[in-house]
TrEMBL record:
Cofactor: Zn(2+)
Catalytic activity: hydrogencarbonate + H(+) = CO2 + H2O
Role of this protein: Reversible hydration of carbon dioxide.
Binding site for Zn(2+): 55, 57, 111, 114
Organism this protein belongs to: Paracoccidioides brasiliensis
Protein name: Carbonic anhydrase
Length: 302
């Protein structure tokens, strides 16, 4: 029996985790032999040109299906590739990729046979997932006229496509993304991965220059209005015993740039403005609502 056959027989008796570790060693050795400069280059820095936002599904490994190498793609994945306004994880990934890595492309990828899409269509109760999938269920309700005439498989693929398009719209409301589009030509792409064939289908999501320009102008106008309002709100919030951080991760760019704010009691250094943080033993949501309503009432009476 050859050494290779002996090694293979040994691997067959390993559980999934041990098998993965053994295959990692084989892969690392083979990759280093084929491209001796790859790992030293990756150890020095990363320079990906693509930010990939996809589904956590095990059948959709972005680097593999793109035929690329480690270091080529910066990645964020979640169930059903949903872009939530208040998801700190995806917001941090997007900002890091766009501002610091300066990726040239953002690819939002949905796929066929998606469990999250199927759950949204079935409207079953799923515990914690119910909250996460709520945007998908809203999309389903908004597009019933398109989905009702389709069979289950077709409806799932159509909703997956609609979800990608909605995600791209959400990304285009992120000022970090908008600034990069305007300043250095960042490109956004929507694709759908066919699990049954391994093929990516590119969705037509192109917009005219005029549409992009109008969005940027509208967003900058909103940013200025919110900045003026929040300049009034900051002292009131601090006097109420709360600090200030982003109201929503994806809305952070709408708000004033980070700055130092201090009171005699609290010191908050370099905090972006917008959302409240409790500084005493009180429920977060309760304190936010109390302070916000109080400030609104005070502002309205002036």
């Amino acid at each position: 029996m050859s050494t290779e056959e002996s090694t293979l027989n040994g691997l067959l008796h390993l559980d999934a985790y041990r098998l993965a570790l053994a295959k990692n060693r084989q892969w690392a050795i083979k990759t280093a032999e084929e491209d001796p400069s790859l790992f030293p280059k990756l150890a020095a820095a990363q320079h990906p040109e693509i930010l990939w936002i996809g589904c956590s599904d095990s059948r959709c490994p972005e680097t593999a299906i793109l035929g690329l190498q480690p270091g080529d793609v910066f990645v964020h994945r979640n169930i059903a590739n949903v872009i939530h306004y208040n998801d700190m994880s995806s917001a941090c990934v997007i900002e890091y990729a766009v501002v610091y890595l300066k990726v040239k492309h953002i690819v939002l990828c949905g796929h066929t046979s998606c469990g999250g899409i199927a759950a949204a269509l079935a409207n079953k109760r799923l515990g914690l997932l119910d909250s996460w999938l709520m945007p998908l269920r809203h999309l389903r309700e908004q597009n019933l006229y398109l989905l009702n005439d389709l069979n289950t498989s077709e409806a799932a693929e159509k909703l997956a496509e609609i979800n990608v398009r909605q995600g791209l719209r959400t990304l285009k409301e992120n000022s970090v993304v908008l600034d990069a589009i305007q300043e250095r030509g960042l490109k956004l792409h929507g694709v759908l991965y066919d699990v049954g064939s391994g093929i990516l289908r590119e969705l037509d999501v192109a917009e005219s220059v005029d549409v992009v320009h109008s969005r940027i102008i509208a967003f900058k106008t909103l940013r200025a209005e919110m900045r003026e309002e929040e300049h009034e709100m900051i002292p009131y919030c601090l006097d109420s015993g709360v600090g200030i951080i982003p109201r929503s991760p994806l809305a952070r760019g709408v708000l004033p740039t980070p700055r130092s704010t201090k009171t005699s009691v609290h010191a908050h250094t370099d905090v972006p403005i917008g959302f409240t943080v409790p500084t005493r033993d009180q429920d977060v949501d309760e304190q936010i609502v109390v302070v916000w309503r109080s400030w609104r009432e005070r502002r309205g009476s002036v």
